[in-house]
Write a structure and sequence with these properties.
Layout: H1 7-22, E1 26-32, E2 36-43, E3 52-54, H2 58-66, E4 70-72, E5 90-97, E6 103-111, H3 119-131
Antiparallel strand pairs: 1-2, 1-6, 2-3, 4-5, 5-6
Length: about 140
Amino acid sequence: METSGPRDEKAPRAAEIIRRVRGYRWVGLYEAGPAEISVIAWNGPSAPTYPRFPVTSRLNGAAVASGSPVIVQDVTQDPRYLTTLGNTKAEMIVPVRILDGRVVGTIDVESDRTQAFTQDDSDFLEACASILLPLWSPLRKLC
């Protein structure tokens, strides 16, 4: 985050680093607007099937609404799961909050194994959300 460059250059690198460091199969960074959630970057085998969707829907919407991580260890058991990759088994979404507590985005990770995520993953992604906050900040144009 300390290097210069626009968000559309930094965000894909951040998604790639998160994916590589933890061995996640897929990582997406999303912006949460008043009406919709939209992908700003991703890293993995393919682009998200749904690059934007209503802010009130699905697992990402649940993370935005609650302001807390959403962890689904078996996506076949949760009807809120929105398919990105056909063989995803587990998904974790961590909200990105600005200083006043509002959720402005999410970090979404997927695995091809059930029961894939631990408290350590949650802690790691929450730390990433903190470090990457400038990607969502009103000052991001200065990044």
